[in-house]
Automatic annotation (TrEMBL):
Protein name per its UniProtKB record: Transmembrane sensor
Alphabetical UniProt keywords: Membrane, Transmembrane, Transmembrane helix
InterPro entries: FecR, Ferrdict_sens_TM
Transmembrane regions listed in the UniProt entry: 79-97
Every FecR protein domain range: 109-194
Pfam families: FecR
Organism (species): Tenacibaculum platacis
Length: 306
């Protein structure tokens, strides 16, 4: 079977190939042609595009006969390429319109100030990532957060922050969200916010000075807070009866260090604080009061606990 008398001469050949209806002999011969790889790439792209079912070859043949009834129907190869090219362009446009903008602060990094398209402002803490859609922001003020950030939101349409613990929704207010591996913390500094817990029907409405937290379970703890700003914006982390594991996780993020523990009980509760600009002082104020000895590596990148 030659290349000429397969996909060019047989008007149903390409359609049968795309639907995996070729015989073994036909497929084997087609795979030997120079055009096979091109059509294979085109078909892979086309399979990703969801559209109404359309018999492309029949439609093109019908159109050809209506517009030029006396003209012989020519090869569909160029039409196939044109259709595939249109699909690629359309997919590229959709992908571009759905693209996102991301902001990342690495462990040990300095807080990043982010201005959103509507004038809302965000302060992003170390070890955190924030992202949102590139276009149509005013109609869809939605962000994804992994880490910690302080928000000052301009009034307007619904504003939401998606985290692994659930969604925080506001219309215009000031609040701080912390969503890390072992704990979630939400504080409202002005106005009101709503938290919808993921995979549950639970939700909470927070007003000024309200705070909720989740640690190692789905139970939401409610508290009051009198802070005027998040402590981390003042280079300080403060804890009240928090598991030492959470405290050390935060310390590791702020200083970009690794903490290796052999047998120390990290479930013990810690009340106190550490500063963000001196590692050795931070270690002393967290571990020494707990009666825990430690060793800091020469490069100050690893802390060893007994």
């Amino acid at each position: 079977m030659s290349e000429q008398n397969t996909y060019e001469s047989d008007s149903s050949f390409l359609a049968r190939w795309a639907e995996n209806k070729l015989s073994k002999e036909e497929l084997s011969e087609f795979q030997k042609t120079e055009a096979y790889k091109d059509f294979q790439r085109i078909n892979e792209v086309a399979q990703q595009f969801e559209a109404p079912t359309l018999d492309l070859e029949a439609a093109l043949t019908k159109t050809k006969l209506k517009t030029h009834p006396k003209t012989k129907v020519i090869s569909l190869k160029k039409y196939w390429y044109a259709a595939a090219a249109s699909v690629v362009i359309l997919l590229g446009t959709i992908s571009f319109l759905n693209s996102s903008i991301s902001y990342t602060v690495p462990n040990g990094g300095t807080a990043l100030a982010v201005s959103l398209p509507d004038g809302s402002k965000v302060q992003l803490n170390a070890g955190s990532k924030l992202s949102h859609k590139r276009f149509f922001w005013k109609n869809n003020r939605a962000l994804n957060l992994d880490g910690e950030a302080y928000f000052e939101v301009e009034k307007g349409n619904k504003f939401s922050v998606e985290t692994s613990y659930g969604t925080v929704s506001v219309l215009g207010t000031k609040f701080n969200v912390k969503a890390r591996k072992n704990n979630f913390d939400l504080k409202c500094f002005e106005g009101a916010v709503r938290f919808d817990q993921k995979n549950t029907n639970n939700y909470k409405i927070l007003y000024q000075n309200d705070r909720i937290s989740i640690t190692n379970s789905t139970t939401i703890k409610e508290e009051k807070s009198t802070e005027n700003l998040p402590n981390w914006l003042q280079q300080l982390s403060i804890y009240e009866a928090q598991a030492l594991q959470i405290v050390l996780d935060d310390l590791a993020i702020q200083y970009a260090i690794k903490i290796e523990n052999k047998s120390t009980d990290l479930s013990r509760l810690f009340s106190g604080s550490f500063i963000h600009n001196n590692l050795e002082t931070a270690l002393k104020t967290t571990l020494t009061p707990m009666g825990i000895s430690y060793t800091l590596s020469e490069d100050k990148k690893t802390v060893y606990l007994p």
